[in-house]
Structure formats: C-alpha cells, structure tokens
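in:
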C-alpha cells in the first residue's frame, strides 16, 4: 500500500506519519500497529490470519503472538473501538481479524491499483497479494535491497538494558550481574526524557539468540545496552556498550577492572557512568539516583541474592526466600530498601498461605522502619502504597503515592503500578486505564501489565477485551496464578461454559499449591450447574471458620446469594474484585453503602474522587450500580 492518507470510517489514516486523525484531533500509534492496520485494510474486509500478519509485519523476526495482540489492542484504543461491538476491527475466533469499517481514498489518498482492480485498494486483487505488497512496504524494501536496515520503531530516545552475561569462571555470579542491570535500569529510568524499558520485558531476551534489531523491534526501542560481568578471586571486570538499533553502530563502550574490595562502590560508578554516557549521547539531561540504599557491601550483595531467589518464589520456596530478605537488614539495620523489600515479601506471603500466615503485622513494622529511614524514596513510598491498599488504609495509600510523585522529576514505574493498584481497588477504573497505557509502553512484554488491563477492562464490562489480555498475560507467563483468578471472575459473566472451565482449571491448579486451602475452586467447578448445592456448600464453608476467604464472596455472587457475598466481604476490606460485573447485585445490596462507609471508602472518595460505579446524590444517599 501507499504512504498516502485515506479514510477509515470516521478517521483519516496517515501511514507515513503513523497517525490517525478525526475532528481535528490526532492519535499516534506505533509503526508496527500501523503496519498491522495497513495489512488489514489491504485485505478489504477479508479475514487475515495471525500467521499472515506475523509474516507481513514481522517478516524474518522471531516474536511471540502477544506482539500482534498488543498492536490490535492499541489500534482499538486509538480508534475508540470495542472487541465486543466492533466498528473497525473484528476478531474472528480462531481465524484472525478483519476490517469492518468502510475505507475510501481521498483526493490525497491512494489511487486504485491498475490492471483490473476495482474499488478501494483493489477489491479484485487477492488478499494474499496485497499482504505481500504490504509486507514489502513494512520491510522498507529490504526484500529488494538486503542491505537496507529496518527503521527504529520508537521516535523518542528509548533504551532497553539486556541481562548482562556472567563470564565468571565458576558461573555462579549471575545474581550480581542481574543486580547491576537492575541498578542501571533504575537510574536510567530517572533520566528526564528517556524512555527505559523495564526489567520484566528486557530480561525476556536472556539467552534468546536474537540479533539486536529483532530485540529492538520487539521492545520498540532505538537503543540497547548490553554487557558482561566476570568475577574472580582477585577482582572483577565489567564491560558494557550502547548500540543504536537501526544501524548497529556502537555509540559508547567501556570496561571497568577493579579489586574485589571495591565491588560496591564500582557497581554504583558503573551504573552512573552508563547513565551519564547515554544522557550525553542521546541529548538528554537530568540524572538522579534512588534513595534508601546502603554503603555496606555485604548488605547490598545479600539483597541481590534475595532478589535473585525471589524470581522463583512459590509456596515451597517462600520461607527460604523470606529468610534471605531478613539478612540485608541484619547486616545493615539502616538499609531502608532492605526493610521495604522485607515488608513486600511478607505481604506476598498472603497469596501462598491465606490465613495460615501472619503477614500484616511484620509487613507494617518493616515498612514503617523503611519509611522512617528514607521518607522521600519513591520506590519505598510505592511499596507502602500497595501495602496500605491491601489492608484498606486508602488515605494512607494515597498519601504514599503523593510522596512518590513529588520525590522525583520522572515518575518511576513502581509508582505508576501502585497508582493503578489503588485506583483499581477504589473503583476509579477509567483513570486507572489512562495510567496503565504509559506502563505498557515501558513494560511491553510483562504479563502483569496484561493482568491490569484485563482486570480494568472486565470492571468496565469489556469482557472480550479483558479475556484477550488475560490470554496474552498467561502466554507471557506473568503472575499466572493471579491472572487465572481474575480471568475466572471475568469469564463468569460470558455464559460460555467452556471458557469458564478453561480458566477455572488453571485457577484450581494454583489453589492446590496453597497449604491449607479449602478447595473452594475445586468444589465450585463441580457445582457449576448446581446453584443450590453450591450456595449450601459456600454457606457451610463460611460458617466453618471466621478467617477471610476471597472466593466465597465471588462464588456466592455468581450463584445469586448477595447476602452471603456481602457477609463474606465484611470479613476483609479487599476490594479487588468488587467492581467486576459478577458483583453487581452485591453493589446494589441495601447494606452495601453501610459497608462502604465502614471500610472508609466513602471518606476516601469524598476527598480524592468517587468510584465510576458509585455516586452520592443530593439527598446524601449513596447509590452504586
């Protein structure tokens, strides 16, 4: 297809600028998303399979299916489209996608191809031919001119720091190499004007074997940092280089040789040197470092070891990892980030042990210590906000985020995640969605971001879009347990038994790993078509003990027992599932407004803004839908 403009429904598409225009407003999309749109439009209403789109848009590259899903999601958002009621892009289940909006060339647009083609973009030309033509355009003629380089996808200065290789003789210092990269990413992320891809996405390319251009295309960046670490008994050597993705040109490189006793000082020097070199080379100014660290080498190294162990955290390894997180603060009691990490680990324990693990007291105590030591640290404030939201201290969570917002010129990724978490729990879904967009740009391949999208879409009743995100997140292997839980709740309202069973099976697998679990999901999978038996079992389970149980309220709502669901909700202020469609009858329960007041949400909303689904009327009556 041509680079000229054309109309798509109410929009004008300008491919050469990656822009959509409507009523004087412009929306930018990534080059790959525009390429996907071009291929779909070229097919002229015919279904284009995922394989065909991969071949056309990512020809010669190795990408996962989530890259295409991300493009479709971005296009729908830009066009104001809906997967459930498509006006532009329709999903054909198990086949692919097609354009359903009318297209038309304008005076400045593409003219119809010659040689028997009729209608816009040549209706008589087979779709596969048009796809091949589109592929040639996407490749910028690379098939005809092999020496041509693929252009970088991102126009703004952007960088991904890939995992450094561990070249140590014994090969057991990967934790140090990973910790160094974490430090570089953290520092670079605070350079004003520089887009930095987060750890979860960049670390997907460890040992991938892909060339840097393919990695740059997958992450949508125009610069990459890579390097290596070699430790020995006498010292260590660290090498790093900065590469421009489109040309492969090495913009900066350096090596650092130091004795072992300088290990802590040097890791900081290296991170700062890399960041400042990038800043100079990319024409960006403003560098700052995080607060709350330590000057004790052994404490820092202990935290790196704990972080490395936490990557494989589950019920079996939890207590071992928790013990590792106690070590940094035992070595240096003034290590604020060590205390914050310990608090977060305690908080995580509730996902693995439910009420069998006393997490709240120790988590709050460790977080209090961290905040006293580093009151302005954005990372610590963000972790505190998530902890406070988990226990229903809504105003404390909001204040923690406010501290994080003013602490740095560039808002760290963890602060944005904490903000989304609080907005989602307090029912401000639309505002949360506007925030998660920026997070995906920084973490394009992190399943946890897909989980947020899925949860927020489901809370708005956009179930098909939500389930697309959950599928994407599950494929990325990000927080699979939590992904399955949210997907089950979303699937409850689809009326699709097969879909619900698919996600329920995955959630049951997770449930079985939790010590002391009561097999709620397993039982409910047996009673899907037996609501009376399900309600009876849930009532007995609820009466059996007074501990909180997240799933009783959800399944009680699903099976039509709003009274039991509200009673279960009173046992815990966890509002995560509260705004899902399956909880609608609970939100409309006569006593729900009282519960909202009791848990402090009404006071919070009066100060910071009301939930999308609730309002206070002039009569002071609280109404939720």
């Amino acid at each position: 297809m041509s680079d000229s403009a054309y109309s798509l429904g109410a929009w004008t598409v300008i491919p050469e600028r990656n822009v959509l225009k409507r009523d004087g407003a412009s929306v930018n999309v990534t080059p790959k998303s525009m390429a996907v749109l071009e291929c779909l439009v070229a097919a002229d209403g015919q279904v284009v399979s995922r394989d065909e789109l991969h071949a056309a848009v990512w020809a010669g590259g190795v990408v996962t299916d989530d890259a295409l899903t991300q493009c479709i999601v971005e296009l729908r958002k830009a066009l104001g489209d809906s997967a459930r009621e498509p006006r532009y892009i329709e999903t054909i289940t198990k086949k692919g996608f097609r354009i359903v909006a009318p297209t038309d060339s304008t005076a400045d647009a593409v003219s119809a191809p010659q040689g028997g083609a009729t209608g816009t973009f040549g209706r008589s030309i087979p779709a596969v031919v048009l796809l091949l033509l589109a592929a040639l355009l996407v490749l910028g003629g690379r098939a005809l001119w092999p020496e041509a380089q693929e252009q970088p996808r991102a126009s703004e200065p952007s960088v991904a720091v890939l995992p450094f290789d561990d070249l140590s003789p014994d090969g057991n210092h990967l934790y140090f190499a990973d910790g160094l990269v974490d430090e570089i990413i953290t520092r670079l992320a605070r350079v004003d004007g520089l887009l930095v891809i987060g750890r979860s996405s960049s670390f997907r390319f460890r040992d991938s074997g892909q060339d840097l251009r393919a990695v740059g295309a997958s992450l949508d960046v125009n610069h990459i940092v890579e390097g290596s670490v070699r430790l020995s008994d006498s010292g260590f050597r660290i090498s790093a280089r900065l590469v421009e993705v489109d040309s492969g040109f090495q913009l900066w490189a350096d090596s650092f040789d130091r004795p072992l006793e300088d290990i802590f000082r040097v890791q900081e020097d290296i991170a700062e040197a890399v960041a400042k070199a990038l800043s100079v080379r990319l024409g960006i100014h403003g560098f700052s470092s995080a607060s709350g660290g330590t000057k004790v080498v052994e404490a820092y190294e202990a935290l790196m070891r704990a972080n490395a162990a936490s990557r494989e955290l589950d019920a079996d390894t939890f207590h071992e990892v928790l013990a590792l997180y106690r070590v940094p603060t035992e070595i240096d009691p003034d290590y604020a980030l060590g205390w914050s990490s310990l608090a977060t680990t305690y908080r995580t324990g509730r996902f693995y042990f439910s009420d069998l693990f006393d997490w709240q007291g120790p988590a709050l105590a460790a977080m209090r210590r961290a905040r006293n030591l580093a009151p302005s640290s954005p990372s610590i404030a963000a972790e505190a906000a998530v902890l406070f939201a988990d226990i229903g201290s809504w105003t404390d969570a909001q204040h923690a985020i406010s501290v994080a917002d003013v602490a740095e010129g560039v808002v760290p990724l963890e602060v944005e995640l904490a903000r989304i978490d609080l907005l989602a729990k307090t029912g401000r879904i639309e505002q949360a969605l506007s925030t998660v967009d920026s997070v995906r740009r920084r973490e394009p391949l992190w399943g946890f971001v897909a989980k947020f999208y899925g949860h927020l879409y489901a809370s708005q009743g956009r179930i098909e879009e939500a389930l697309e995100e959950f599928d994407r997140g599950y494929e990325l292997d990000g927080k699979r347990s939590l992904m399955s839980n949210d997907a089950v709740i979303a699937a409850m309202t689809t009326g699709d038994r097969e879909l619900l069973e698919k996600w329920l099976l995955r959630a049951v697998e997770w449930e079985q790993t939790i010590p002391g679990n009561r097999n709620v999901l397993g039982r409910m999978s047996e009673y899907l078509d037996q609501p009376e038996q399900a309600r009876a079992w849930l009532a007995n389970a609820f009466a059996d003990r007074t501990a909180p149980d997240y799933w009783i309220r959800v399944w009680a709502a699903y099976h039509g027992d709003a009274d039991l669901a509200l009673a279960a909700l009173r046992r815990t202020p966890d509002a995560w599932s509260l705004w899902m469609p399956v909880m609608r009858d609970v939100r409309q329960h006569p006593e729900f407004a009282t519960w909202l007041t009791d848990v402090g949400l009404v006071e919070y909303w009066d100060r910071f803004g009301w939930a999308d689904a609730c309002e206070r009327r002039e009569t002071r009556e609280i109404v939720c839908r």
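note: The longest strand covers residues 235-244.
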